[in-house]
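In the current project phase, our protein records have gained a structure token line. A sample record follows, to show the layout:
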Amino acid sequence: MLHGRKGIGGRPRSEPTKVVRLPLPIAQLGARLARLRNMGDVAALLAVAPWKQAAVPLVGSNAACGFPSPADDHLDRPLDFNELLIENPASTFAVRIAGESMISAGLFPGDIAIVDRSRRPTNGSIVLALLDGEFTIKRYRMRSGGVLLQAENPAFADILVSEEANFEVWGVVTRSIRML
């Protein structure tokens, strides 16, 4: 039951509804939103199972990329990719990178960015932002005039976020996985 002047989702009835593109097929969204309401985290929305065991053996010696050296037969403890990639499981999700605006930062088309929604963006961090209904990954820069989304490729222009823009930082990119 709704009380007072609040509308659907707790926002005032006078506030207009904004259409936003989500990074999921609409057919999958209903069930995931139901789970999200029950679990209260981003992982339910994006179907991330961050603590599933995913350990592989880690060789205890380094592998030279230049002149080959004899390899040790020593294995270190198993390596769990969750330990390397995920700091906050309930607020972490992955997104596939499209476009070439961040190649100088080492983010290439087809790579996977690990995004943590619990981190607050700081000057210079790389963020996943929603700008006027479109997702973009850029370097976050605070300027006296507001926020600048900086491309890491000279072929792409930076974006100065205007006060009129519908802008939200969805999370900070903490890691990336190169897909060869």
